[in-house]
Structures are given as structure tokens and as C-alpha cells.
Amino acid sequence: MIYIAPSLLSADFSDLANEIRRVSEAGAQYLHLDVMDGEFVPNITFGAPVITSLRRCTGMVFDVHLMIREPIRYIKDFAKAGADLITFHLESCQDPRKVIREIREREIRCGIAISPATPVDLVLPYLEEVDMVLIMTVVPGFGGQALIPSCLDKVRFLRRYADRRGLTIDIEVDGGIKEDNIALATEAGANVIVAGSAIFGSKKPRSVIEGMRKAAAEHPFRG
Ligand code: DX5
Ligand code: ZN
Question: For residue 183, what are the domain limits?
Fold first, then answer.
């Protein structure tokens, strides 16, 4: 199953409730929420209080992407705010296992993310403990950047590795994904697709999402 996750980072922040309605009615199931602290990445976005308010606007799956240093300090807050899935960066913490435990004991799905410079091997020890791996396809921090195609080699490696071991994990890709390159990601084995500028930047998000789904269906992972 392919899930499309519009990233709120490219929405009009003065009108978030309507922006969310727009992408939900356009057929997206997930809402990707990029939390940045100005330390782990050179940008600051929003935190748990904003997510708490947005939770009242929609039943979409809240896919919270934490780009913050030592995320363990805030897992409780994001859980309380209504996250369905919390993804943190392997590079952002001393003890990833502790963070995984902190998320899972709240019965929230857990994802682990790696930036383009991080080798994929480093996530392998955690695969059995997480629901999802997020392979960044741009350097985290900003929307609207171009996809780095070589990151998709990590997706392919990981999908094959998980399949060989009978592990059913989600693989999410994030950064620079659009209608004309989503096929590269799904062919490599990604099944949760983040798209910020491509969806929120369009006047016709429904047609973008449908186009993405069609391209994804025509280009499945084949091993
Ligand atoms: C970047 C964020 C992304 C970003 C994607 O650090 O994690 O989620 O919003 O935006 P696009 O799809 O425009 O690259
Ligand atoms: Zn993101």
C-alpha cells in the first residue's frame, strides 16, 4: 500500500485548518509534520502546541518528523499532542534505543530517520524495533529542494534486506519528491511518500496526488 504524506512545511501557515482540509479532501491519508529546532537543522518550525491544535481539525494520520537534538526530551509532549507516528533522527541522539522505547511504550508507531550523509547500515540494528525507516532524499531543514537520487540506493538496499528477513517495515522517503520522480522511489521500495512543495504548492492537489498514485502503481518494487 502506498501512502501519500503532504508535508505541512509548504502550506500557508496563516490558514492551516483550510490547508489541511484541502489535502485531506484531495485524498492524502497522512499529514507529515516537520518539527525543527534550529539546532539539529538550521531552521525552526513549530512544536507540540501547534500539533495539539491541528489535531482538532482532522482525523488524518499525524506523521511527526522530529528534526531536533535529543528528541527523548519531547516524546511525551508529541504523544500527548496526538502524533500517530513519531520519527526521530538516528544522528540526533545519544541512545536511539531509549528513544524507540519511549515512543513505543506510548503505543505510538515509531520511525527512525537518516540524513543523506548517514550510511544505511547504521539503521540495520534497529529494524526489528521500528515500524518505519525514513530515508531522507534531501539534506533536512528546508522544503523545495531537489531530490538526491543516490539516496534511493539506500531504499532499495533496505527493502531487499527487510524482505529477505521477512520484516514488514514501511520505508518513507522525504525531500524533492514530485509526480515526475515518485516512480524512482516506489521502484526502489519506498511506500510512504512525503511531498511538500509538490502538493501544497499546487492549485490542484487532487490531480497531483492522483498522478503520484498512478505513477507509483505503475512502478512497484520488483525485488
Ligand atoms: C525537509 C523536510 C521535508 C520537506 C519536504 O527537511 O523534512 O518534509 O518539507 O518538502 P519538499 O517535498 O518540498 O522537498
Ligand atoms: Zn520531513
Answer: 3-218
